[in-house]
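To whoever picks this up:

The parser on our side crashed when reading a file containing two proteins. I've narrowed it down to the boundary between the first structure block and the second sequence. Both blocks are reproduced below exactly, byte for byte. First block:
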Amino acid sequence: MKKVLQKIAQKFRIAAENNASVAEPYDFNKSNPLGGGGERVDIQLNKKIDFEKLDIYQKSHYSRYEFAKQKIDNNEVCGDFACGTGYGSIMLSQKAKNVIGADLDKTVIEEIKKRYSTNSKVTFLNENLLNLNYNQYFDTIVSFETIEHFKEEDIYTLFSIFNKALQPGGKLIFSTPYHQEKTEDAVKMGFHLTFYITESVIKKWLAVTGFNLLEFNYQNYQDHQIVSELNSKDFIITVCQKKMEA
């Protein structure tokens, strides 16, 4: 995983040097707080997207939301939790009836409210996910690259909150780095708190928090496609379903 991270960083630097990213910074100040490398991706959907010109982070994130959009039905109510810069919520709204996007970063939320103010189907909230208090409200919840930012004991709490927020039979779609090693470099970066996430670990979390596994899929930085079988796995994408009440 360390070599993968090094390669990713190198590609990202090259892309930046060559101005390969189609998503221009949302420059409301010089520090551009909407940017964040691989940890927070910014894609502006109020302009035409050329997928081939996106950087490696953008391609992976964009592909995940395209995958999620295929999994939802028309007229669903969706939650996009840890929505980041909001482009994923907007993508989901192209099919869903309503989308609520929530993120911990107040600055980002305030700016994307302005950016996407004309989209009446999406509501953005500044909220700690552990404080969400919905009861059987959503048909589908999407949460990409989220759970690794929580300690494992809090992941059980988070999944229980998601379960409560879903209608009976509702779906949860989430992604996380696949079997990321807990290296000294990874710990120093400070982004992730839970490591070594694999199929067996996820199955344990789902069983305890009231979900049935529907499918595992995988993604890597080479082609960004999301498929059921993959030799080189950078991410695991899980689709599961809230257990029906007896």
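<<boundary where parser fails>>
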Amino acid sequence: MIGVSLNQYRITATIGAGGMGEVFRAQDTRLHRDVAVKVLPKDFVADADRLRRFEQEVETLAALNHPNVLTIHDAGVHEGAPYLVSELLEGKTLREEMNGGALPVRKATDYALQIAHGLAAAHSKGIIHRDLKPENIFVTRDRRLKILDFGLAKLCNPSPALRPPSPLGGEGDGVRGESDVPTIRIDAAAIINTTEPGMVLGTPAYMSPEQVRGEPADHRADIFAFGCVLYEMLSGTRAFRRNTPIESMNAVLSDEPPDLSASNANIPLALERIVQRCLQKQPDNRFQSAKDLAFAIEVAQDRSQKQFQSTTASPRSARKKSLLAAISVTLLAIVGAFIANKFRSPGRTTTAPSIRYLTYSGRDYSPAAAADGKRICFSSDRDGVKRIWVKEIASGMESPLTSGPDDFPRFSRDGSTILFTRALGSKRALFRVPAIGGEPSKVVDDALSGDWSPDGRQIAFSSNRSGAFQIYRKAAGGEGQEEQLTQGPNEKTVTDWSRDGRCT
């Protein structure tokens, strides 16, 4: 097609070809700019499914306008072959960028944040990508990431504005729902093409469990695929890659990928927790929106940069600070010893307390430590909403865990779960959430605070539902009946259980 003109677009070079069309470099003779033109060959037009997919991609991209999503300029038909015109991208795919190895943590975090922003923009329009993978993410020369290939996208509950007449002619009705799009398309390892309902749709190593099972998938399937991509950027290996597509899909359903820290000890724990939450098998346990995912990455990125800056001071500056610190400590010790010797009573010794600040925002409340002493949880409204946060003591990394408004968090004794209270109108209720993140579940209605029994099987909580503050006990999962433990006025909060779990 070199030299052929499609309206004002003159084809100048071939870029590539695939199952969904051929891509060419072209000159826009009207606006005098280079563009990319994707053409569906004539022999593909006879394939109703491929034609529908092509129309679907055009209409989906036309509904989006975001710097992290491919921008479409035009669409049309030339001699029976439909085509779309998009911005011309200079760079490489994320797969080529990784080149079989892991990316530096700071670069991977920056890329992850851009992908999350692009997904958030798509999801806000009701668009689910359903085939997010490194091959469908492009890295431009100025390090801008672009999400490509919306051929498998699904448009949920589209408004009339998002379902225009087909730009390719005919009575196109826009992007169809899940029940209308049963086709399977499995990447380069394609083994099946079918139009029977209930078949899976996507790329095996990046599909969510619900996609593997052929169930309806919502935006949280993209969040699972995002977790696979971020895992690969950080580790250099695919989370669920096996020898065959079927084995990869089985791994998605039943296996957990190796810990990221096993492949790279420099990965911040907060970033690893983000990946773990994205890769939860149950959609309710993942991030519930790409917007919240982006926020968590921003927090991890900010903390990581501060930590990086604090450890990369110049050697000369570091020596100078060390010298000044040593002099200051020596002087303080001399002065302190003099004062202590002058005013100390005979036979009496004193020890000065040591204080370490664990949080610094000035808007942090209700802290509680995990039994192993490696983490703390607390509530904070530093970002405008009072929610539960978790901090890793060793690394200093802090991550938001809940959406709020929440307070009074308490770690279970094994550190796997956090109990907290959430404001529901004029009352509060007790919820529990996995410490690595997930969807909180309600345990008790109308409770002011609570704590775990030592074995983690029960919780004690306080409530004023009877007109006076009473303490109750209930199974930690929320099942069964509550047992009232006290009669008469009591304190508003539960302090703790005894070590044997017999009393509070």
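After patching the parser it read the second block fine. The first helix runs from residue 42 to 45. The chain has three domains: 1-88, 91-153+180-309, 364-484.
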